[in-house]
Amino acid sequence: MSILVNKSTKVIVQGITGRSGRFHTEQCAAYGTQIVAGAVPGRGGTDVNGIPVFDTVAEGVAATGANTSLIFVPARFNAADSVMEAAAAGVSLIVCISEHIPVLDMVKAKAYLQTGDFDNPFIIPNGPPRLIGPNCPGIITPGECKIGVMPEFAYTPGNVGIVSRSGTLTYEAAYQLKRLGIGQSTCVGIGGDPVIGTNFVDVLRLFEADDDTHAVVLIGEIGGTAEERAAAFVKDKMTKPVVGFIAGQTAPPGKRMGHAGAIISGGQGTAADKIQALKDAGITVADSLATIGETVAEILL
Amino acid sequence: MNIHEYQAKQILESHGVNTLRGEVAETPEAAKTVAEALNFTRYVVKAQIHAGGRGKGGGIKLANSPAEVKQHAETLIGMQLVTPQTGPDGKRVRKVLIAEAVEIEKEYYLAILLDRETSQLTLIGSEEGGVNIEEVAAETPEKIIKAQIDPAFGLTDFQARQFAYQLITDTTYRPIIPNAAALILSLYNAFTGCDCSLVEINPLAIVKRDAALDIVALDSKVNLDDNSLWRHPDIAEMRDPYEEDPSELEASESGLSYIRLDGDIGCMVNGAGLAMATMDIIKQNGGEPANFLDVGGGASVEAVAHAFRLILADENVKAVLVNIFGGIMKCDTIANGIVEAGKQVELNVPLVVRLEGTNVELGKQIIAESDLNVQQAEGLSEAAQLAVTAANSG
What we know:
- The structure holds two protein chains of two kinds.
- In chain A, the strands form two sheets. A seven-stranded mixed beta sheet of chain A has the order 3-4-2-1-5-6-7, with helices on both faces.
- Helices cover about 35% and strands about 20% of the residues of chain A.
- Mean pLDDT of chain A is about 90; it is low at about 120-125.
- Chain A has nine helices and 14 strands.
- Chain B is α+β, with helices and mostly antiparallel strands.
- Chain B is about 35% helix and about 25% strand.
- Chain B contains 13 helices and 18 strands.
- In chain B, the strands form five sheets. In chain B, strands 7, 8, 9, 10, 11 and 12 form a six-stranded antiparallel beta sheet that branches. Chain B has a four-stranded antiparallel beta sheet with strand order 1-6-2-3, with helices on one face. A four-stranded parallel beta sheet of chain B has the order 14-16-17-18, sandwiched between helices.
- In chain B, strand 10 and strand 11 form a beta hairpin.
- The longest helix of chain B is centred in the middle third of the chain and has 18 residues, at about 175-195.
- The mean pLDDT of chain B is about 90.
- Chains A and B meet through helix 1, helix 4 and helix 5 of A and helix 9 and helix 13 of B.
């Protein structure tokens, strides 16, 4: 068991013919992910390493039964539009790796997804499609399915779920766990942008309902109030132990630390506030990057 | 991206927002000429820097004649203006905005920004204008009004009108409501038309001119979405290089994400989250990070060399910590990058390297066999400790 993706997930890759799309598609396929199609306008009828490419996502879905889209379309080729195209084509999960998407484009794309009014055979029972990202490393169920750009050696199958706003921090945390002999059920990178499809609470809810997830690691960073909301959810709704970590304790206010979302504005979104909120919710907070793995090991004892 | 008040004024004006008439000037002479052409009875001369609280720092002056405008411009242009937002060194004033001084009846606050909870744009207003809105929100939240904007329909006429009625409750000002509603719509058009991330009018004022009421944006702030600048070349040109740290600007031009800080341990890390967490662990070990630097996923030789140059250009740096989690990019590739960069850049401070991930052993070997004077750390804690010790003994 796992959340969101597993062995039977069938993936169509939007932007499969680009440099990064092609490379990561190969990596995902080698990991065992069922990559069944690619979609690139004007490239219909060709193939990438035997994977058939279609002009539109709708054609690809119709021909292959893909239920998940993985997006590498660069922001300047309107990646937010690709998200809407995937939704309209009827996939139930959209993983958008693309970075630097204009915020207003994502506002529109997210609103489009939430209308949930798509003519397709897959998603109607489950409501609108779920978007992961954008500007994220993707999602991996170790040993079964990798839909994204994370280095697979860092992961191993097991029972700890990881949800994070940051890519490399997730790899770091997963690898610390692996070396302590602790595997992961599913790891989800939700992305570092101000507008994202799936937030901490959405993923925590899924982990809470997943029998094979026994504990959860939540990796947050400065900016916004997503961690505070996650803390409130953990306090009210979660029975499973949660370990938290917040990056950016030394970040100065008003400066954007790489991610568009990582900015302390008007005294809001500081690491200290977030750590306090997590602790108040009964979450065990790892005080250092170096001790995330150990902290999880201790609560699993 | 931040821009100056006079540029924000240009953007808002071009979308129909009623702003004060005024012009920018770069010299006292030009300021006088501008004032003569404007021909007002009273003027306000405003220092143009990227920081709020200019009035408190003495950056805003009133004048009764073009000659007095010139005097104030002489004081302001070239001064280091210190405000609550600039830090102790202040910011150098290079331009002044000369505008009409008006008789203010009542001040309001009006802004549009992204509500991250709902992923929708939100109108925010308050009758408490001209003051720090964060304080209003903290102390008297009931004085803040909000309206969500559905992206499918945009801001509707009725919403703008309704908001104007909620904002301006004093019935004396009823005749101004249609103008206020129009201004709110124009502000929304400016936001969406230019891909802003924040537009703020503070204060928005009801003013009296020749006994007639008018509603005007007295001061405004516009922040732009960096991810959208490519489709607004005219706005991208508004960037003022004087307002940015030159090393941060240089970094962004070469695809690195760099923020200069006050400490003495330079950091080079891949990934924004890991970079922040590395800064934190340095602090936890008693050190102070000199910068935030994300070399990105690629970490090519060029990127690493450039990153070293940026870090070492900071005279405060007494040690450098490289923390790389090699994923798709393998550790041996990164190690070669560090060694190659070491040949291009003179490394005159201790270097601590922590590599983890794919081909880590090979990567460590490459560094160990190089001529570089490098301390290799096994774990994150050790890396931070070594860097702090090196900086303290340097």
